[in-house]
Amino acid sequence: MSAERTTLLVVDDQRLVREGFAMILNAQPDLDVVGTAADGAEAVRECARLTPAVVLMDVRMPVMDGIEATRRICAVGAAKVLMLTTFDLDEYVYDAIRAGASGFLLKDVPASELGHGVRAVAAGETLLAPSITRRLVEHFVQRPAPGRPGERLSALTPRERDVLAAVGRGLSNTEVAAELFLSETTVKTHLGRILTKLRLRDRVQAVVLAYESGLIEPGGQ
């Protein structure tokens, strides 16, 4: 039974916050908080020691912030990182994605969505809060001239481009399947091929590339 549980490290400089998240997550039958940390430096050490599957990481902390900690953890593939932030357009969010974060949630997220977010990241289905996805990328991503997709996309088939565009707009696999009249399994297959062809780590990088390449534009449908 224990092998089916997803292990977590909760990182936040506020004791009540990290203990509160740990309590919420430990109440889930399939989640197991194996440790906590009060800053990024401690998070890096504890991640190496405890080898959790997912690190729930605050962005702003003393000693070492969540961005640098994420960069170090992801550089060695120690765990997947799910960032928590107070603001839905935190100035550091994009830097954290570049550092390797696999998802983002707001700290006021309902308990049920927190658990869902952890499970999604653990399963490789990278997560961005709906209020973050488009505003985040549109605000930070530097894009080429409209209508001129990057050369990297030339490796994709037309259908793979359709899937990438839908994912870039923040749609889930289920929503992409419904929009493109595909099975969810086929969407997952296409997405896997897209990540492999474009040498992308996860769904977050796919979203960023969809904007950076000009495949989709801010405000576009």
What does this structure look like?
- With 221 residues, the chain is an alpha/beta fold.
- The protein has two domains: 2-137, Response regulator (Rossmann fold), CATH 3.40.50.2300; 144-212, Orthogonal Bundle (Arc Repressor Mutant, subunit A), CATH 1.10.10.10.
- The protein is 48% helix and 14% strand.
- It is built from ten helices and six strands.
- The protein has helices spanning 15-26, 40-50, 66-75, 93-99, 111-122, 130-140, 158-168, 173-180, 184-198, 203-212, and strands at 6-11, 31-37, 54-58, 80-85, 103-106, 127-128.
- The protein has a six-stranded parallel sheet with strand order 2-1-3-4-5-6, sandwiched between helices.
- The radius of gyration is 17 Å and the shape is globular.
- The termini are far apart.
Record keyword descriptors for this entry.
221 residues, alpha/beta, Rossmann fold, Arc Repressor Mutant, subunit A, 2 domains, six-stranded parallel sheet, 10 helices, globular
Number of domains: 2
Unreliable segments of 5+ consecutive residues: none
| Content of β-strand | 5-15%
CATH architecture of the largest domain: 3-Layer(aba) Sandwich
CATH superfamily of the largest domain: Response regulator
Q: Mean pLDDT score, rounded?
A: 82
- Overall shape: globular
Number of helices: 10
Just give the CATH class of the largest domain: Alpha Beta
How many DSSP-defined strands? 6
CATH fold naming of the largest domain: Rossmann fold
Show the helix and strand layout.
Elements: E1 6-11, H1 15-26, E2 31-37, H2 40-50, E3 54-58, H3 66-75, E4 80-85, H4 93-99, E5 103-106, H5 111-122, E6 127-128, H6 130-140, H7 158-168, H8 173-180, H9 184-198, H10 203-212
Parallel strand pairs: 1-2, 1-3, 3-4, 4-5, 5-6
